[in-house]
Amino acid sequence: MRKEKKITLSKESRDSMISSIQEFFHNERDEEIGNLAASAVLDFIVEELSSEFYNQGINDAYRYISERTEDMLGLQK
What we know:
This is DUF2164 domain-containing protein. Pfam families: DUF2164. InterPro entries: DUF2164. This protein is mainly alpha-helical. The protein has one domain. Helices cover 75% and strands 0% of the residues. It is built from 2 helices and no strands. The chain is elongated and about 65 Å long.
């Protein structure tokens, strides 16, 4: 079984994501949350959910490449 590699974010990306989470809570839930709470939400998303998004990206890329390969094979003479 392959060991999962932990996703690391740059400070700039992390700060931007925390701000986005805070904006979401403010706009959608009319709640103000601080950096610590938003950071905890981000940590949860990264640790518990990000692998699903990553795997979907891999599947989408595979499907795209496979379709293009089929297109190329159709050009054979």
